[in-house]
């Protein structure tokens, strides 16, 4: 059930600088992903049982991938950005990484173990969103986040509190591209806790932001019965 009222909050605690990259770029000089980068997102999915890994080429230098590129660890110090391979797909400013599959239709479901993190975002983003923006603040991303012991839904910097979630060890994400929504799923019930309406105009992919601890993704799963 989607709550309609959005409330303003300060974004800085929820999507903070990862601590190592400094940029003199102004908003007017933000770069989009190049055409060569566009061609590298060649894996697409239109059916159920989406199977994906995390795309290291997109991972900010504060993030390490593990367990065959299905898990993410946040390193506060991270790597010196100058020591990370330059790639137009890499997020330059924020601790974000994308999945390696793009989605342009259908209904898809995956889960994320979050018990070892106190600050993260989970959802989807356009595969070609600006690498100078953060998931949630960008209008081409739709995420559920957890910070300061509270859950929220976020897109285009608009934040809606999500209640009655607690801090489960693992949650589900349901994407219905054709019905235009992303849902946060309680995997114990199972039930959709909250839905976030989305006007998809381009292919999207799983998206993750992480500012504490680690999370682990689980894909290739069947959607639980009873979700609508």
TrEMBL record:
Coiled coil: none annotated. InterPro entries: B30.2/SPRY, B30.2/SPRY_sf, Butyrophylin_SPRY, ConA-like_dom_sf, E3_ligase_FN3/SPRY, PRY, SPRY_dom. Residues 32-226 form the B30.2/SPRY domain. It comes from the Eukaryota. This is SPRY domain containing 4. It comes from Poecilia formosa. The lineage of its organism: Eukaryota, Metazoa, Chordata, Craniata, Vertebrata.
């Amino acid at each position: 059930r989607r709550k309609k009222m959005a409330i303003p909050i300060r974004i800085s605690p929820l999507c903070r600088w990862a601590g190592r990259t400094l940029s003199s770029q102004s908003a007017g000089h933000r770069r989009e992903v190049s055409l060569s980068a566009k061609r590298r997102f060649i894996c697409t999915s239109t059916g159920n049982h989406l199977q994906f890994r995390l795309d290291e080429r997109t991972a900010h230098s504060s993030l390490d991938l593990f367990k065959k590129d299905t898990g993410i660890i946040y390193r506060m110090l991270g790597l010196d950005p100058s020591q990370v391979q330059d790639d137009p797909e890499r997020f330059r400013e924020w601790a974000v990484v994308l999945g390696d599959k793009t989605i342009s239709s259908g209904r898809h479901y995956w889960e994320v173990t979050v018990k070892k993190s106190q600050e993260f975002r989970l959802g989807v983003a356009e595969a070609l969103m600006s690498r100078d923006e953060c998931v949630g603040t960008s209008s081409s991303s739709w995420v559920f986040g957890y910070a300061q012991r509270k859950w929220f839904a976020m897109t285009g910097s608009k934040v809606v509190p999500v209640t009655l979630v607690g801090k489960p060890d693992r949650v589900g994400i349901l994407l219905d591209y054709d019905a235009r929504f992303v849902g946060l799923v309680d995997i114990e019930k199972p039930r959709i806790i909250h839905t976030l309406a989305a006007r998809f105009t381009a292919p999207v992919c799983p998206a993750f932001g992480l500012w504490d601890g680690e999370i682990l993704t689980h894909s290739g799963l069947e959607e639980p019965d009873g979700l609508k």
